Each structure stands twice: as C-alpha cells, then as structure tokens.
DNA sequence: AGGAAGCTAGTAAGCGCTTTCATGCTTCGT
DNA sequence: ACGAAGCATGAAAGCGCTTACTAGCTTCCT
C-alpha cells in the first residue's frame, strides 16, 4: 500500500518575533523594544536579543507592524510611464525624498488610462501609503474630477494625503496638496523671447486641447502675444498629441500647405524633436529659416542639433516638493513648520542654439 | 478659566470590515467572502454588502489582509536609477508584467550604493514582496556576494524569490532565479561586424574592470579577435566608467596621444555618445575616419548623428521574464509549467550609420 | 417521511506585531 | 530602615483581515 499520508513539506518559514523572544529568553515585547529603540532596555538584554535576531536571520513583518499601529512608511507615486524622462525625473525626486524620510517608494504607471489611474489610487490607499502623489496634467472631465475628489477624501479620512503634482487643484473643499510649476509663465517668457528676436508669425504646435498643461501653456503664449501687441492668429495654433510623430507629421503638413511662419513653439521637447526632424527632412534650416523652442528641458533637448532652446522645469525638485507636502515635513524634517498645502516651483528659459533673430 | 480639556479631534478614520458588516447586517466573514468572491454568497446578501461598501467608501486594509494569509501581491524591483533608460526599460517591463499578474510594483533605486542595495532587499523582504528583482551587473566582491546570498535564502525561507536580472548566478546552492542576456555573444557579434568591415585596430572603451557586464563584454570582444586571428592589444583596452564624461575625456586623451585605431567599441551607448562628442570636437569624422559601436540600444543611439550601430537588448522583455520567473508563472499564466529557474534573452546587433568599411 | 446532501451564514481562532498596564526589583531620601 | 520613586520586563489586548469549523435551512432521494 502506498503511503498517501501528507508529508508536511518543511517550508523553512521565517522566524517570528516570538521565536526571537524565546531564543533570547525574553518576551516579545522586549524584542519589539529593542528593534524600535523607543524604550529603555538594559544593555545585556539588548545584546542577547540582537544576537538572537542575527542567528535566526529575523526580518520583521512590515504588515504586522503596519497593522499594529506603526505607519507603513511608504509613499506611492502614479505616473504615466517610467520611460518618459519627464516623469522619470519627477519619480527620481520623489524616490530620493521619500528615501530621505525613511519611506519606501511604490511607482505605478497608468500608461495613459484614466481608469487605471483611479484603480491605482485605490490600490495605494489599500497599501496605506503615507502619501499618494498623482503626477501630470489632467484632462477636463467633471465626472473624472469627481472620482479623484472622492478618493482624495477617502485617503484623507485614513490619514493619508493625495498630492497633485503638475495639475490644478480640485477645489478648496477637496483635501489635497498641490505642487505646480509655472506653465503659463514659462510659455509667456519663451514666447516673449521669440518675439524680441523679431519673430511675428509663431506656430504653436502640439498638446491635447483639454489637457490642463496645454491650456496653461497656450494661455501664456497668448498673453505674450497680447503683451507685445501681436494678433492671435488661430491659423497658427495646431494642437495635438504630445509625441514625436505628431510634431513630425504636422510640420510636414504645414510646410506642404506653405503656411507662413518663422518660429515654432512646441508644446514640449518631444514634439520639438519630431518637428525638427521634419524640418530637416524638408531642407528647412534651423534656426536660419525657422526658429524652434520647446518646453520641459528633458535630455533630448541637448541631443538635438541645433540644441533646443526651451523652458526648464526643475522636475526633480517638483517630485521632492510633492513628497514634503504629502508627508507634511519641511526642508529639513522640521515637523513644526506650519502645514503647507501648496507649492509652486519656478520655471526658467534656457537659451541654446535653436533660435535666431529674424533678419 | 480656559478649557484645556482634550477636545478629541474626530479624525474621520476609515471604515473597517466590521463597520461594513454591521451596516449590511451580516458578519465580517460574509463581507470578506463578497470581496474575495471565493465562496458562495447569495445574490441578496451580496448586494446588501456591496451597497454598504459603496456607502461607507470602504477600502480594504492591505496589511491586515496580507497578515491574515493572503499574499501581499506586490513585486519589488531594485535598480540603479530611474533616469537611466537602460534601467527604465527594464522597470517598465517589470511594472507591466507585474500588473498583468495583478501585482503592485515597488521600484527602489540604489544610486550605485551596495549598502543601499542590501538594505533595500531587506526592506522589500519586510514588505513581503512576492518577488524581489535585482537588476544590473554585479561587482566582483566575495563579501558582498555572500550578503546577497544570505538574503536570497531568507527570502526563499519566507516563500519569496530573489531574481537576478542581468547578473550572473550566485551559485547552485543559492535559491535564486536568473534572467540573463547575452553580453558575451553580443560583444562577439558586434566586434566581428567591425572586423568584417576591415577594421583591425579596435579600441574598447569604458566599463569598470570588476563589473560582471564589462568582464563578459570584453570576453566576447576578445573571442572575436581570436576567432579572426587578430592580436589582443592591451594598449587598445581602456576600461573605466560607464558614463558620457568618461567617453568624452578618454577619447580626447587617446586622440592627443595619437593612438592608432580605426574603430571604437564602447562598453555602452552612453559612453559612445560621449566619445562621439569628443570625436566631433576634435574634427574626426564618424564613420569616415573612425567607426563607432555601442551596446544596449537605448534611445540615445538613435539621436546621435550618425545614428549608432549597437547591440540591442530586449530590455522590456528582460523585465517581464524576471517577473514571470519570480512569480513562477508561464507566459499565459500557466501555473502548471515546470518551475523554471533561469532564462536567457537573446541580443541582436542593429546596424545604423556609425560604421563604415575600412578603405 | 426521514435522513443525507447541499447551501448559506456565523463563530472564532489566529496572522505577527505594538503598546498599555501591571509587576517585581533596585535605589534613594529622610 | 521603610515607603517612594525609578527601571526593566512581562502579560495581554488589540490592529483588520482570512478561513477553518460549525450550525441552521432547504432540497432531494429512497
């Protein structure tokens, strides 16, 4: 007869605090105190416990710990895509600042899906993240905004914080923190730069019409035009995707249509890269025939030839600020600073070689 | 008299499962069953519970859940830096595959520190991640390898898995999974490509001497040389950092020394970018005077002018494989597939414009 | 009709920690 | 020398879930 008795597989499960306690000949309370160092323990006992921990290769269970009251010490960040340098730099800032405050960082990507974004907020909420940072411009959509607001309240109710990074506030009645950068101001400044170089016919290229980022950048652009008494010509505004292909395709189309312009303000550097490629292929020299500027100052701006004049956003700092706001700590862990609910980081224009004065 | 009585701040703490149960007039067990859907519950009851959940805005506590036995459903990935496209692509693969299997992804960065790497493994272990993926080449260091091995065992003991991604195995007695890509083969192939184009004097540039990646790439390079009966000239091997500055500085130095060479094999694309910049500044045309190849095929390879001939690594696939190995699932969630402990993804060379036949 | 099956739902025992409260000592002050 | 004070430790009550195990009802078969 074949022995079908269950042979218990001796899964060498990890030691618990009780195991450590037994081995050290103390109670688990003492072990906990040694680990957390928040209560006096005699030197001898401490050493015994520490030895037991080492011998057993004990690793605390973060869940039990989190459940028993100590915070989970993690922050979550929700971005579009890790590959995109724009998000990657922000993520780096978040990761570093989180680490600086002893937090682990959970990075989640939406890949552009709204539903996934909402689902991820819930997931991070379930994980009881100390803060959830939502990065990137938002689309105008009442229903969607309401969904986000609901989650912001839920998060708030469990002692966490939703931080909006690079997107407008949901309103004063929604408990969120906001870190913004100056889309409008940057667009104003760089448009003005183009104008003072003599350009009058400036094409605005790219950016989905309902994206908050586009709206703000376009507003700055218009304000600069108005400031210098130039007309706002709708025929020069060509909104669209924020990718390379759109820049390439659309500029080729504009060139084919013989649109009259001397400068190009791309909604971001990626679009600028595509546009410059299109210009190059069409034999239009930059900046001699057309000046080009972008926005964001991601690495590709320096790879392009000529190097791209663009608006720099302190992305990493943006991420760091978001964490500070979310964790309610100041620059140097000054927990006593008055609670700040919003921050704005400045932008600056960086002049490189893609703009020439109009002859 | 000022009332100094403690006014209890009514922190609107989140609803628990018990709250939901009370509201729905059932026991918490039933609520759990509705949520998990792993046990029959009558339609009426289910609806009542679901309504209570919605009304209360209940969000499960992932820690309690993890503690009570269900797995935490997260995977951790440890990389050098999110900004580096090499790591970012792998991270993307990991994130996507993890999501596909219903896991949340925790991304941690070491920024090059060994201690931090070890600390992060421990942290992810504490979080009870289903798998911990360690990405990137390793430095030869016995003590360090022993430390990693110890953690691999600890992880294994608690039912998790350490996956080594792009680094050699720690030995058969250490319970890890390994996903590799063919550093040696790719280096062989691209060196041979250079040789068949007539090049005889090939400089090998960059890569820390004790990094496993460098060792393998250099080995492939040497094998190709030997295969074609060419001498291995130590004067042509210039190991060093894997960054742009090293490529730039060293190539300028070699040029100043009037080193005799016609081709350049850079240890990765970043070094190639620096070297090409140095070559450009020195007025040495690529590929006419010097052919250049890189390794990795990160986006910058396509930005460079001329575009860089390089070795492509399916980075995203590498990340996906790592997750599958770590989670012990097959391509299509086929949990019945025999346990695989190691995988190797192939490399291929992508020919662009930075190599010319030697005239 | 009577009991075996088959359902649904509740009870309660943990999971591995933190923390409050209680306890037995040692150490002082007077 | 005796009670007060101070320390170091232990006992035990949760934290919010999951999941045996148990129990009450229907069905259904013989």
Main sheet specs of chain A: 6 strands, parallel
> N-to-C SSE series of chain A?
HHHHEHEHEHEEHEHEHEHEHEHEE
Residue share in helix of chain A: 40-55%
Q: What integer value in Å does the Rg of chain A equal?
A: 27 Å
Number of helices of chain A: 13
> Which chains have the largest interface?
A-B, 53 and 51 residues
As residue ranges, the low-confidence spans of chain A are 1-11
Q: Please tell me the overall pLDDT of chain A.
A: 91
Structural key phrases:
six-stranded parallel β-sheet, alpha/beta, four-stranded parallel β-sheet, 12 strands, elongated, 359 residues, DNA-binding, 43% helix, 13 helices, homodimer
A few lines on this structure:
The structure is a homodimer. By secondary structure, chain A is an alpha/beta fold. Chain A is built from 13 helices and twelve strands.
How would you characterize the overall build of this protein?
The structure is a homodimer of 359-residue chains. By secondary structure, chain A is of the alpha/beta class. Chain A is 43% helix and 14% strand. In chain A, the strands form three sheets. In chain A, strands 2-1-3-4-5-11 form a six-stranded parallel sheet, with helices on both faces. Chain A is elongated. Chain A starts with 16 loop residues before the first helix and ends in a 9-residue tail after the last strand. In chain A, 47% of the residues are buried. The N terminus of chain A is likely disordered. Chains A and B meet through helix 4, helix 5, strand 2, helix 6 and helix 7 of A and helix 4, helix 5, strand 2, helix 6 and helix 7 of B. Chain A binds a DNA duplex (30 and 30 nucleotides) through helix 2 and helix 4.
